[in-house]
Design brief:
With about 290 residues, the protein is an alpha/beta fold. About 40% of the residues lie in helices and about 15% in strands. α3 links the parallel β4 and β5. The protein has a nine-stranded parallel sheet. Strands 6-7 form a two-stranded antiparallel ribbon.
Length: about 290
């Protein structure tokens, strides 16, 4: 089992001037400690269950490009990009650029978007749920076409591209992996089965059920369920000296036994950056053998 680090809280001591050096230290500590994934939120305001909207938030792909320059091996992605925030052609180009400049370490994390307040505040379109899922499916089709040998046009219900040229192509072979975030049983997990290399679910009592629903969608579309990487949000509750490691390991073991191979959690609060090394000492050595 692998552990991913999700940076969802940028409100650290020192304010904006300290953001860059703190983020670099956190990323390097994560890489050195054995984390295999490093992600940031694709939001422009802080989200409610972490802090008030006025708290610091960095734009995802600028931050990931910065992190690419300061890391060597860790996979980089947004967890996850809201499809309404960027035109699909621009998103494909952003992931491609990140992949090329990081030496093939980019992964696309994408979902149907949900933050209506943020979108209204900054002027992003936020269509009804059904349309957002239609746009998500078309965006996946466009991005896959741009990462192929086909640079022809694309015409869908919501997007029309005259030429899907993408040069240079990504370094990842055959292309960057695609993760779809969310656990909606009717639409999200069906899109995972049809288009994605990985899912991202929420750890919790319904995790086994969500995986079974995904298995059923795979059977319907003729996809081998085992070819989809199962990732999930994990509880990160560990003190600086490793307090709480046994409880966390038990929770991670339950997730692993259900088929989760990558657990991703976020370190929140002002002391979050100081806790990364503790995971390398108390958690990663245990789970890496599972």
């Amino acid at each position: 089992m692998e552990l991913g680090l999700h940076v969802s809280d940028f409100t650290w001591p020192g304010g904006a001037p300290a953001l860059a050096p703190t983020l670099v230290r956190m990323a390097r500590d994560a890489e050195d400690s054995g984390f295999t994934r490093l992600s940031v939120m694709d939001h422009f305001w802080q989200i409610g269950h972490i802090g008030p909207p006025e708290h610091e938030m960095l734009e995802a792909y600028t931050a990931l490009g910065f992190l690419a320059a300061h890391t060597k091996t860790i996979t980089l992605n947004a967890l996850v990009t809201g499809v309404t925030y960027r035109e699909p052609g621009l998103l494909a180009k952003a992931i491609t650029t990140l992949d090329v400049l990081s030496g093939g370490r980019a992964m696309l994390g994408i979902g149907a978007a949900w933050n209506a307040d943020e979108s209204a505040g900054l002027g992003f379109a936020f269509p009804p749920t059904a349309e957002r899922f239609e746009r998500l499916e078309e965006a996946l089709q466009i991005i896959l076409q741009m990462w192929s040998d086909d640079d022809g046009p694309y015409k869908g219900k919501h997007y029309e591209l005259g030429r899907t040229l993408n040069s240079p192509q990504p370094l990842s072979s055959p292309r960057p992996r695609i993760m779809i975030g969310g656990s909606g049983e009717r639409k999200t997990l069906r899109l995972v089965a049809q288009y994605a290399d990985a899912c991202n679910l929420f750890g919790g009592p319904d995790l086994a059920h969500k995986l079974e629903v995904l298995r059923e969608h795979c059977a319907r579309v003729g996809r081998d369920y085992e070819t989809i990487e199962k990732t999930a949000i994990a509880p990160f509750e560990l003190g600086k000296k490793g307090e709480g490691a046994d409880k966390m390991l038990a929770q991670l073991r339950e997730m692993h036994d259900l088929g989760i191979t990558v657990a991703t959690g976020s370190l929140r609060g002002v002391d979050g950056p100081e806790l990364v090394v503790a995971y390398g000492e108390h958690v990663i050595p245990e789970i890496s053998s599972w």
